[in-house]
Design goal:
alpha+beta, globular
Length: 191
């Protein structure tokens, strides 16, 4: 099984990128935020999951091991395929997704494309107790200003998971930002 690749990003495509490793090009499908951050020509290391199916071999890549672990956990749930797992990892940062699974936060889980209430409930039920504790520690969006900003962005029609991810990133840069500042900066990034 291919678990890690390091090489040069040759070309970005919709939903994935071509990674050149030792003269061999691998088509790697990846979550949206990771894919957007990649630049053609840059050297990158990718944690990978190889899926073997009747119709071909499919390689999925992630910037950190935590995302790969969550991807594989999600695939263990009946009714969750790679497309849904990637949608969840695109909508929510790994730690926020892990926390949503552990806490059964249907509001967050259903913010991803292709995830309805029933599937979110099934994921929370089947993965209860299976999410490793180390995935839960770290970044949290807990301030009132951040929560207010996320709710305002959701009311404006943005997906809650995307809004949370942007607000979380903005908070890392300015932990004391007020809700209005967060909303203003988030709107610049989300449009």
């Amino acid at each position: 099984m291919i678990r890690y690749l390091q090489g040069k990003v040759l070309k970005k495509e919709e939903g994935g990128f071509l990674l050149l490793v030792g003269g061999v090009g691998f088509l790697v499908q990846a979550p949206g935020p990771f894919l957007q951050a990649l630049k053609e020509g840059e050297e990158v290391g990718v944690h990978t999951h190889l899926q073997v199916r009747e119709d071909g071999l499919f390689l999925y890549g992630f910037p950190e091991e935590e995302s790969l672990l969550l991807f594989e956990l999600l695939l263990s749930v009946s009714g969750v395929g790679p497309k849904v797992a990637l949608a969840l990892l695109s909508a929510l940062p790994p730690r926020l997704l892990a926390r949503a699974l552990v806490e059964g936060d249907l509001r967050l889980l259903t913010s991803a494309s292709g995830v309805g209430k029933r599937l979110a409930e099934r994921m929370a039920l089947e993965l209860k107790g299976k999410v490793p504790p180390h995935l839960l520690t770290g970044e949290k969006v807990e301030s009132e200003a951040a929560e207010e900003a996320v709710l305002a962005l959701a009311a404006l029609g943005f997906k809650e998971g995307q809004a949370r991810a942007v607000v979380l990133d903005l908070l890392r840069q300015n932990p004391k930002a007020k809700a209005q500042e967060l909303i203003k900066e988030a709107l610049k990034r989300l449009r």
